[in-house]
Every structure is written in structure tokens, then in C-alpha cells.
Amino acid sequence: MSVRRDGSSEAPEASLEEVLYQVKRVIVGQDVLLERMVVALLARGHLLVEGVPGLAKTLAVKTMADALGVEFQRIQFTPDLVPADIVGTRIYNQKLGEFQVSLGPIFANLVLADEINRAPAKVQSALLEAMQERQVTIGRETHPLPVPFLVMATQNPIESDGTYPLPEAQVDRFMLKVLVDYPTGTEEFVIVERMVGGLEAVQSVMGGEQLSALQRATQAVFVDPALIEYAVRVSSATRDLPAVGLGDMARYVTYGVSPRASIYMVLAAQALALVRGREYALPEDVHAIAPDVLRHRLVLSYEALGDNVTSEDVLGAILRAIPVPEVVLRERSTGSTAGDRKWAPPPR
Fold first, then answer.
1. What DSSP letter does each residue of 245-293 carry, written as one string?
2. Kindly report the CA angle at 198 between 196 and 202, in degrees rounded to 5?
3. What is the pTM of this model?
4. CATH code for the domain in which residue 122 is found
5. Which of these ranges, 2-6, 242-246, 285-289, has the smallest mean pLDDT?
6. Of 194, 213, 232, which marks where a domain is finished?
7. Residue 151: left (phi > 0), alpha (psi -120 to 50), or beta?
8. Residues of the domain holding 276
9. 340 strand-pairing partners
10. How many CA atoms lie within 13 A of 112 on its CB side?
11. Is residue 147 classed as helix, strand or coil in its secondary structure?
């Protein structure tokens, strides 16, 4: 819970609404992207944003950082970047006669890895320890990263010259991958109008402590065991498509998702529930967030590439094949809401 100036408590969703209001003073549309950005922040997960140039991906992340009031660093990835440019390095001090550590820009609360696919794998791997263990090792010393710490990366899907595919181990560190599409005609009109008139200044309405409190509130969101089972069934289906009646699509998937996907589906569903003003997760939360958690974890075959079958096609078939569990809600004696599960019939 956050606290008002008069000392009274304030609902978490009220603080989130203030943050989104400030961001939307600059960003037009992109409601799904902004919602997923907040979900990643609350669930302590990293976010990968993919879209063609000019869709305000970088501006959205920077504006979000301004509204949150946390320390922000932008790293522009280029082919000549080296790992020390990101995590830091040891520099010899001649006056003192010893090495001193110079920390890199990754030591911030919110790090924007802009056009991450422009750097080779050696540079991208510099983020692996930071994103998973939230620490950086320079020489023989290990340095913890600030709390909270989140990486939001952007990549351009239409260019192949001078770009490098992200290693699978790197991609798996991102909790969500969001695809950004073109704006509508009305939204584009408003975008041009705002750019011509000048963008409004974004006010900081939160801080690192408040964000950490919201992250703790996210962990307290109630999750019915039926939702955990549903997430596990969806993840397992990517590894055994014939088991859910999709044997004709099995040739399109080389490797299914790891158990990390099941964990992230549940954690992201908790955050999505809090964003939508609830203290309990619903089946539609897991169902809505599943494509963003899974799309970058599926490893498709060359046959899928030849038949123009995408991850969206495979995931759509899986989500249609596995019934969503029905959760009957009831009021607890304390006034909060819990869930009684009622199973939907299993697929035949």
C-alpha cells in the first residue's frame, strides 16, 4: 500500500493509475504495451519489446521511468560494444598503485537496452548474470544491483544487416515479449498533433520504495491451484503437442518451453490482476498473459519457417485446445475474496 500525504492508506491500483496517466500524457495508444510494462515491473520480470522503427518503444520506456521516479539508464547497443561498456571494468590507479572498479550503466533501477539485437552474443551475454542473479561480477568481486532492477529491451524485426539473433539463454531471461503494432489513423493524428505542439512534462508520482511495496503486494495476490495447473498444462503442451490433440503441428516445434514459462505465467497473472484492481487472479489473467510469456520461448523448426507457421499460430491452437478452468469466487469472512475451483471437463 502507498500512503497519501495526510497519512491515510491508498490502494495500489490508485498509484498505478497515476503512473499510467502520466505516461499517457506523452504516449498515444499502445495500451497493451503499457499494461505489460507495468506487469513486468510488478512481477520483477524483464521485458522484450519488438516493433518496427518509429513506434515510440524507446520513448515509452523512458517516459515510464520518468513517471516512476527511479534511476534510469539507456544503453544503445551497437556492433562495436564490449561487455565492459555495460557492466563496468577495473581501472588501474597509478597514484594509489591499485585497481579500482568503475561500474557500468547497468547499475540502475530501470535499464533500457535499446536495439539489443545490434550487439554480438558476447555483449548480450554480459546481461545474463545481471538479469538472473541481479548481480555483476567484475574481476573477483561481485556487486549487487540496485533494488528494484529491471531490464527493458527493444529490437527491430525488419532489419537483418548488422544484427545478431539473441541467444536462447538470453531470450529465456525475459519474462514477457510484447509485439508493438502500428497505430490507428486517429491515434496517429493525435501523435502528430502532440509532436507539433510539444510534449508535456512528465511528473514523477512514485519512487523506488513505493515500487518495491507494490511488488510485495503483487506477491500477496491470491492464486487458485487450478490456475497453476492450467499454466503447467499449457507449458507441457508445447513439449507434447499430440497429448492435446495437436499431433499435426508437432513437426513445427523443435523445442517446447521450460518450466520457467509456467512460473512466469503465474507471476505475470498476479501482476495483471493487481493492475486490473483485484487481489486475486482469474483464469482470464493467465490466458491473456500466456502468449506474451511463451511466444519467444518456442523454438520452431525449419518446416514451420517453410510453411509460414509462427509461434502465434502454435500458441493459439494450444490455448484453444486446453479448456480454461472455472474458478467460483466466494467472500471470505474477513471480507477478502478467495477462489473455490470447479474443474472444466478435460479435453478428449
1. T-GGGGGGEEE---HHHHHHHHHHHHHHHHHTT-SB--HHHHHHHHHHH
2. 145
3. 0.81
4. 3.40.50.300
5. 2-6
6. 213
7. beta
8. 221-342
9. 328
10. 21
11. coil
